[in-house]
């Protein structure tokens, strides 16, 4: 926030955040929204582990337990992990490629508000006491049979949030393709920007199937469609295919940006160029491609027949190869480097073995006959938490510590960061390692309780204690954030001291126009190259100081998303309440009227004057 | 003396190691690590093979990782050390692409082999010269939250407790009557979903007598979220030699021939005829499609409702308020039934047996 903003009143500041189209501010909004949902999903996880602490426990009822596991999964995937990663992409990617904003700032804002209102819609279900309860996968026979409006909240909430994600993905694609600074060729792009590109392309192809599936579900439940009603000629297996054609790429949409974060952190704190950069890029693209070829491995027990199962087994195992390439390249990046154990680096080095363990159990599950045994057991729970927590969440925590100074201009406390790390990592392995054996011992997943005498008691206690440690770790992180914000010790351009990519050559936090002059990029790790050649600023400009064109803020994206939010309630209640249909029409009217306003009213943005930029430069006493 | 003591100690430590190992294998009646049939054994072999391959990968990664972390710390190299900015190595990239491909192939070949082997149900329709099916076929129907087992060729039906002969392939037709479930007997072999719209077919073979197990039964589970009481949708499996199974079948078929002597009917049976018969049959002769579980073998069973202790007290509690114990199930409550009547019904049900 600039010093000008700080002098403004609360109302003006709030208005500024509601209307912002600045990619850095939208990124911070994503992190804030995703962070709140992450805490909610975490509390749900703790309730699950309390319920499973001992056999025949009655901490929560059977029905409530199903609601909690459904909301835990849905919240963590759609409302926590994705938005937080999109937040990092928003803040960092334009800085890394030397752009002043994303290609469509207005759409960027729209994407955020759709995510926010979609997530809110989903969670409002708690207030209605009618919560989604068919699992985050919402398999059709159960989701059609589910009573109340729970599944309706799921279908409409995810539809709105998913639309936001799709918009975000397209925006990032266009930004990376068209807005790279002079000299920033594709093969000089930092790995995080590469993974953003591939993840965005995957969003483009993976989310439309989800949209279609959710529309089918919505129409089945609210408007008498029969897509999934087999007694009317529908088919429930279609939902499983549609869901996983989206759902499998989705996990790569999550993990690739996390790979990207680690591919930034490991070189920086090894003080060494990423080993095998070209192979890393190729592996990223290959994983993105293969990610669409393996969805049926979630359905080996559905009865697709041996041929389909065999094909999907082999394609699944093939993904291990590019993933292995990545692991070894990270190891060889550290090899011969100069490793400094900062908090982000601790997360990065603990990620490698944690993720390898999740990866190898993935290959085991990819063997169809073995999956007949392991499918839908606690082994699967252990596997995907090893990749999602051991990969994505460690990536998110690493990225939080790593880019915090760039986003807020002050560094998170390192000792507290290391305490969070230790608590979280120990808790994580304690919770999930033992669950592999619970699966071997015959414990199915998604059970609200278990009988005594099956040999599962001790393992479940260990697992629950581990979950508590993870919770404590996150608590320390929140305390750390508060302390850091209060102290607010300002830092310079490159607080870690070994910056390699463009974001470390500009102020922390950057000016709203990012770069006073568009940078010239002379190679991979351009800032490092400049510094090694004696240019201490790490920056060479590609243009003289001149007027910069910037977009105006707008409240329209928020109103547009809000229209969908209230329209959703109309759709849900249209059959039982008189006000349902009018509300649906009103909501859609608000949305379309906002769109019309945006289309019909020219908004050409404004120019930051050359004189103002020169004054900013002088204030700092130097260039960029 | 000392040698002897040492030997003893060795034996003891070996015993301790075996105990720990066995504890890690879980319980015999429901652990996939102690397979009691060929299907489970095939899958267990794949588990061992894949675990070994994956352990090799983990060990290689961990060795490189540990050495790198020890040797290349900045605290050792000094703050000013600038490492050489290596671009990469084509040879290394080739090595860690080709070696994993080979490892994957070692796993992929048996995977494909077993996928076809376990998916082969052609023998299901095989008939002998007289037109009788050569193999035992069981039709399984999964319902909220119980299991119905019909033996179509034998004309009998039972519920909650599957009874099968040992040492032969038993073929299954699986379907769900309401929402999707999944049929799984962990110790015997992997699961297959019971879909709502199509029949799934597979086979299992049972190679251990369930008599020798802790409760005298293998545990079966529902492995697909199906509603509030998904966790309680257990069933049990009794295995026995073929001859014993044939005796059981004959006894089951005989339950349909019993002529009720009106005068001799006990109070429990009379009450049952009034209150329960609309949903629950007590004759095992018939087909699938009942509203509630068939109770012809109730007295032989191991659990009430699939998971509760098999005694009169639990049975009475269950009849009074089934929703309390298995939320979302379709049985109505009999909360206003007198204790005497409940006693009589429980007495009657516990007496329903074909094995005693």
In short:
By secondary structure, chain A is mainly alpha-helical.
Indicate the overall shape of chain A: globular
CATH architecture verdict of chain B: Sandwich
Q: Count of helices of chain A?
A: 20
The helix/strand order of chain A is HHHHHHHHHHHHHHHHHEHHEH
List the uncertain runs of chain B.
Answer: none
CATH level-two architecture of chain A = Up-down Bundle
Biggest sheet architecture of chain A: 2 strands, antiparallel
The shape of chain B, in one word, is elongated
Membrane topology (chain B): Multi-pass membrane protein
Function (chain B): Subunits I and II form the functional core of the enzyme complex. Electrons originating in cytochrome c are transferred via heme a and Cu(A) to the binuclear center formed by heme a3 and Cu(B).
Domain Cytochrome c (chain B): 263-353
Domain Cytochrome oxidase subunit II copper A binding (chain B): 133-251
Protein described:
The complex is a heterodimer of chains A (624) and B (356). By secondary structure, chain A is mostly helical. Chain A has a single domain, classed as Cytochrome C Oxidase, Chain A (Up-down Bundle). Helix content of chain A is 68%, strand content 1%. Chain A has helices at residues 3-7, 10-19, 23-51, 62-96, 105-128, 140-145, 150-178, 191-222, 236-270, 277-290, 306-334, 343-366, 368-374, 378-408, 414-440, 457-487, 526-532, 556-573, 580-600, 610-620; strands spanning 548-550, 606-608. Chain A has a two-stranded antiparallel ribbon. In chain A, helix 3 packs antiparallel against helix 16, helix 9 (236-270) packs antiparallel against helix 12 (343-366) and helix 15 (414-440) packs antiparallel against helix 16. Chain B is of the alpha+beta class and 356 residues long. Chain B has one domain (27-69, 92-257, 264-356): Sandwich (Immunoglobulin-like). In chain B, strand 1 (136-143) and strand 2 form a beta hairpin. The longest helix of chain B is centred in the first third of the chain and has 34 residues, at 38-71. Chains A and B meet through helix 4, helix 6, helix 9, helix 10 and helix 11 of A and helix 2, helix 4, strand 7 and strand 9 of B.
